[in-house]
């Protein structure tokens, strides 16, 4: 079981890239509402950001708590550049403006990276957090550049237009983002196939040995961080074009934490993992966030469960089934999976009830004790709904354990079977 | 002089509070190799528990019960969470505690809401302890220092007199040696984690009403505690103590000082006007730079003395 | 013959404990030199000093006539010295091929390149295939290094060490923990890959030592008590008392 390997699937590679590009291009033709377009634009930017983050976490083994520094500063520089362009101070095509963000990101990667990448592991994590906090604190100090609480606004629509592209309509911005996302994805994938990319893996796995084959681990980490900052800066630049505003939040701890969560949940060990992660993240934000205020709680819980039980993220959960499907053994898993799903629903219902009722109770028990959940209306101050919710939670937990044991047993047999076939 | 003395006292009480937080973090880090990202979250739930208990039973029971509850939470976290991810290494443990910090903050939102709670100093400790020149110095600040110092003595005695204390000391100087001591390592880890959490919880109990009890308090103090640990030297208790006091002074004084480079230049007869190069920088007052100073100190420390004040290892 | 590596009054202490107590040694180019001695004599420490893993406490080490003391491991490696480890130290999660290729990249001048495509680096890939051939792991090319057998991992350890084409090779107990037949294979492998190079090895298996070494140094309590041809070492009284004698039981 080699969890962290980037073996290119040569035959299917063009197919995979082709389909990805096609899907991205065609999607807005199918989902035409402004709302989905907004979300898809965010996902496009998020993919670049998360992939750049994974150059550190997945490929370089550096856990950063301050990656938004590079995207955020990239965004600020792009915004100021856009404002100067529209004033006519200098000419630069808006289409290429994210490059400005990229250069800014790389520049700050050089400045901060040299200190932070001396060590990896826990020390790196701590220092990246400190740098993040420092830049955020600075943003409130220099309001001329950072615009204080309000941030800096811009207008992406310039006077001139080339071939009818003004970036006025959201759809044009979407295609701008998609274009950049595809280019950046290809570039970052290509990077994993270069000497530096491979040595980043080597330094992640065994820094000591890397030193004894001639590589300065500090330099490998430093260059990786600078390149990662470059792509993060591009993502920042795109987001500033998309929103036409940048605030200090763009470089804050929450933004840094979000990209970490998305990347990890998707699967840091695989190139495409962060892409899955970003999609899951935005589904949580829009779908779950639209229904309940507690969506961050559920996101945090999902993250914790992944850390505890599936550290390879969704990508590894998907990939572990490939050999099983090839060996036509999936039928052995359906039954335990069904059991796990049903019991899981019970557990989830209990959990959601407790969380939502707690939230409702603390927020408005005195003024508005009535609430509805799963189509049932009840009074949050009475005992019965609490008893039911607690029963679902505890009962679901107990039956889930049985179901997961069955899943584990089925998997054990399958792995044994696969090993025998190989031998 | 008056300003200086009062600020010094405030620095001391704040620094001691920081030490209560950083000592737990340092001990946990040295023994288990785990940098507990959620340490400040235990500080926060300490304050919230104390608030809730003081509503029901009063402040004095809260002072005892809340830290114990936090210790129980900490031990459960170690037993059912950290121990599971231990096999994936320290980065996985760090990720786990990061997720936990996230979850605790959201849980606090759920239970106590998004704004601050009215956790206040009890009436018996409200008022002036003594008057310095013209300023009344609050009893509560004195109380905070008393609790911190007695805790300090408590830690010292535990480390030097008890069996588990000797194990911890051995671990502080030789992290690898813990395994070979033949003690029940998982149990020691659980107790240490619980103890460290209790210290953070106690800091929350006495700090929550001195400052403010709100969901953002963990995110505000957490990075500062990390700075303390880096500046003091990873794994050094003495270093953490000195760094806590240093940061206490730095933060307390910087908030109150309204001097800028422009004022300094003015003394030499040079005025900074908006057209002066870097005018923004020269016009910044020390109080405005306050939030950046701890991190600046950390970065400078990493460049010029990566081991920290008292550290023996470079992370 | 010029001197490949020279140790001048090298000392090393950890705290108050002196591990290496003034070692002088000059190894000419092309020699196969074995360092033997009882456990705790400081053999591995000596390797760690030569390869730059630990800083020296005193003395100097010259590689091809130039001092390398105070240099980082990667700087020493770039000057043509490569080492293996007693406890297998490979890139566990990478394939055998990737392991070896990582070890050839620097010596072929690719450094920190992020503008070359690995797949297109003919010289690096060819060299990696050659090395895999010579260490007998060609059939395991795409296997993850972590799942190789112990003997295969030891072979890969040697492969990574020699891949960069270093002139001076340090092998730390290359046959430790191997069966008799595995050891015989390992001896042949070492003989083959050290052809025309300077080899220094720490080894416990006296069969291997007398088979391979042109010259043997005996290290006891951080001091070289004898440094001579194998047949003379065998007859050396002091060595027998200090070391070979105890090996007999």
Folded structure, characterized:
The complex is a heterotrimer of chains A (423), B (315) and C (249). Chain A is mainly alpha-helical. Chain A has helices at 10-30, 34-59, 68-87, 98-116, 121-141, 143-146, 170-192, 195-205, 207-212, 217-243, 253-266, 273-291, 295-309, 313-319, 322-326, 331-364, 383-422; strands spanning 152-153, 245-246, 370-373, 376-379. Chain A folds into two domains: 10-312, ABC transporter involved in vitamin B12 uptake, BtuC, CATH 1.10.3470; 322-422, no CATH class. Chain A contains 17 helices and four strands. In chain A, strands 1-2 form a two-stranded antiparallel ribbon. In chain A, strand 3 (370-373) and strand 4 (376-379) form a beta hairpin. The longest helix of chain A has 40 residues, at 383-422. By secondary structure, chain B is mainly alpha-helical. In chain B, a hairpin with a 2-residue loop joins strand 1 (128-132) and strand 2 (135-138). Chain C has a single domain, classed as P-loop containing nucleotide triphosphate hydrolases (Rossmann fold), CATH 3.40.50.300. Chain C is 36% helix and 25% strand. Chain C has helices at 43-50, 73-78, 96-105, 122-134, 150-163, 180-193, 206-212, 230-235, 237-248, and strands spanning 3-14, 17-28, 32-36, 58-63, 66-67, 81-83, 168-172, 198-202, 215-220, 223-228. A six-stranded mixed beta sheet of chain C has the order 6-7-8-3-9-10, sandwiched between helices. In chain C, helix 3 (96-105) crosses helix 4 and helix 4 crosses helix 5 (150-163). The mean pLDDT of chain C is 91.
In a nutshell, what does this entry contain?
Chain A is mainly α and 423 residues long. Helices cover 74% and strands 3% of the residues of chain A. In chain A, strands 1-2 form a two-stranded antiparallel sheet.
